[in-house]
Amino acid sequence: MNILVIAEKRNAAQRIAKILSKRNVKTIKKGRESYYEFTKGTDHYYVVPLRGHILELDYGDEFKRWNLKDLQKLVEARPRKIVKEKGIAKILRELGKKVEQVIVATDYDREGELIGVEALSILNFKGPVKRAKFSALTEEEISNAFTELVDINYALASAAEARQHIDLAWGASLTRFVSLASGRRGKDYLSVGRVQSPTLALIVEREKEIEKFVPQPYWNIIARFQKRRIFIGTHEKNPFWKKEEVNSIFEKIKGAKNGKVLEYKTKKKKISPPIPFNTTEFLSEATKLGFSAARAMRIAEDLYMGGYISYPRTDNTVYPKSLNINSILKSLEKSNFADLVDNLRKERRKYPTRGKIESKDHPPIVPTRGAKLDGERGLIYELVVRRFLATLAPDMEYEEKKAIINVEGENFISVGREILNSGWLKYYIYAKFNEVKIPELKVGEEVKVKEIKVEEKKTKPPSRYTQSSLIKEMEKLNLGTKSTRAEIIQKLFDRGYIRGNPIRPTKLGMALVETLRKSEVQVVKPDMTAKLEKDMNRIEKGEIGKEKVIEESKAMLQEVLKNLNVGAFGEKMRESMRYKIGECPDGGELIYIERKRLVVCEREDGTTFYNLPKTGHVEILERKCPVCGLPLIKVVRKGQSPEIRCLNSKCEYNIKKDVVGKCPKCGGDLVIRQSRNGKRFIGCSNYPHCDVTYPLPQKGKIIPTGETCPYCGAPLIIIRKKGKKDWKLCPNMGCDYNKRGREDEE
């Protein structure tokens, strides 16, 4: 029998073909596309890789031009499905005529099921269709999946298709309205989305809380005691909110020489290991290692495709009984973690830890085979391995010692914690436990008082979201899914709405959310999006049809659009994107106009304009330029060190900073400049009369040496990169200095 297997991506198709054929597989090329062919027993297989979705949902040509009058029609319009991978579609149709059975072997989740169903719609195949359901690209999983084929889950695909329709309608109509009303066309358009916008609103709301926060002073009384070693005690009433009370107690005890132990207790305590990794837990931990959520997910998907870890998109935090834990441990003996596995066998807990969420689609994220990987893949693989081992390890045990020490009638509490058995901490090195040692004490004995002091502190505002805490908040509010949250956060970065980690909203991001709120656009509220997410879960369970959910969402959207006023929205947006950032040195107000990357000094006798750099993120600093008194700005460009400049591009402060030496052709200054696309280079200050330019490496700090190249006369410079040796060179890349000169110096 001839069988067609449809895989989601090339790596997955190749691995499936190799496993099923026992590596006796042939690659067939068709133009820029390829597929795999092999014979197994009496069956002949064709394994075709897709590139994710090969159909794209979009509106007809009549909606290509953005027009405010078309928005209601846009919502009502039925988008069409366009074949975006025509080469793959052609292969599918050709092979579909040769086969007697089709097996869908895409990832088993909503998106994967829809991708497979889309491919089937192109095939228009009338014969038997089955589904290979697996959670890892390992020999055991793939062999079992193709032995125990199941039916296509069309309800699962329908839930994903409903999301496509809803997100397209909301995103297209609101993005067009907001962009056109704000006068932002072309590359400057403002993106609005059903999940993206309420997520941005969370970040903006947190920033506003921080800005409005008024610190409140409070005081702690701290004592330093001594018995063989110094240890700390804190007053039992800490914190104090009235200074008079603190001063009264401090005056009473400040001269004390001894304290008396009223109570001393020890207690053994345990901390259980962490729960197995689902997607949210994994991304939360990966971002703590410095990865963006989107980058961590891409690496995890790559490891999954290579057969190193199980499917990384899962809600499950409970290992299923079918998971062969012993087999995984055996495979890890061939990795860098063999010693840890050997140690774990001696102390393994009876049952692995488990979280609150148990689902049947995929197991938690676990390693599937031992490997020795390096780089970013190695770091993510190690994180998954160590988490898996930790879930099988014993509790961490420690002893808590607690003492109450009386000083002149005032009680101080001293708490110590010492590890008795590190347990799972040996395996999961990312978790920290701070030990605090205090001496053995006896009730009634006296200890020396070395010092008593009052610490004044202030309450702190709520913390900004990290990518880790934002993903957890999105899950809590039902914003997006395990498959989309990392991608949504990355979109907010890419759109220029947020920056940094912890995450701050940019002026543009704050202006957009504020204007949407003032215009009462419900898309910034998570409850509406959460309802649609619940409806899509109901579609998946077969409780409701996708068409009903799509129509309900369109009705919501039409109501939102009815209440929007173009003129009012545009005016509010323009107001939100003008900020006073200070005073001009010679009088007047400095106003930042974000949309134009422009700062203006508005005075009664006229206006002065200061253009900000056209590329990079610009932050207005509170520091003043020592030359002209205008604010300094920080410019951050990808791959380059942050640059501090004066707001006035023509200020002597900038000119002196940028000069690296004299031009060998005309004697003018050679200055570091930025091209329109953000590439830095050296150019002559006498341009256009002098056309001398030199390219520069795009990464690293540029340091002038004050020396002149003995071969061509250009100024010699040093490139300094963090963690690397300084590189001295002539910017004239073809110069002999870069070949012979450095060798002579060495």
Cα end-to-end separation: 70 Å
Largest sheet: 6 strands, mixed
Low-confidence stretches: none
Number of helices: 21
Average pLDDT, to the nearest integer? 91
Q: Give the overall silhouette.
A: globular
The CATH topology of the largest domain turns out to be Topoisomerase I, domain 2
What is the CATH class of the largest domain? Mainly Alpha
CATH architecture field of the largest domain: Orthogonal Bundle
Number of domains: 6
Q: What is the gyration radius calculated from CA atoms?
A: 32 Å
Question: What is the CATH homologous superfamily assignment of the largest domain?
Answer: Topoisomerase I, domain 2
Strand content: 25-35%
Helix content estimate:
25-40%
Tell me the number of strands: 30
- Please give the order of strands in the largest beta sheet: 2-3-4-1-7-8
What attributes does this structure have?
globular; 746 residues; Topoisomerase I, domain 2; Rossmann fold; 34% helix; Topoisomerase I, domain 3; alpha+beta
